[in-house]
Amino acid sequence: QVQLVESGGGLVQAGDSLRLSCAASGRPSSPYPMGWFRQAPGKEREFVAAISRSGGTTPYADSVKGRFTISRDNAKNTLILQMNRLKPEDTAVYYCAAKLLSFPSSWTSSEPKDYDYWGQGTQVTVSS
After folding, report:
1. What does the angle CA 75 – CA 38 – CA 3 come to, to the nearest 5 degrees?
2. CA distances (Å), 94 to each of 38, 45, 81, 104, in order?
3. pLDDT tens per residue across span 16-58
């Protein structure tokens, strides 16, 4: 089992920044391919960003490209999402997800169904 715990959400104003973290624990040990998704009220869960096991592949949703940066600290088993220039439309619950996959090291996915484990989510609210 793998446990994922997100933190760092909050209430900010448009144009501000937030840094989300996702701590991974359990077995088998990481690193795994991981991703960030978000879900706004009344909407489906949508892809935000992903990072491969190697860290060398990092696709982004068009809506966040250039504003958000995904990264990982494998020594600390932590996934990071740096969110800059936040907009009201970024308001959602943000979830991290992990896929138990070792190869290829470049694997990523933007599909929620491809991930095996999910965190409980952290709320991000951006006021205008």
Report:
1. 40
2. 4, 9, 10, 26
3. 999 999 999 887 666 899 999 999 999 999 999 999 998 999 9
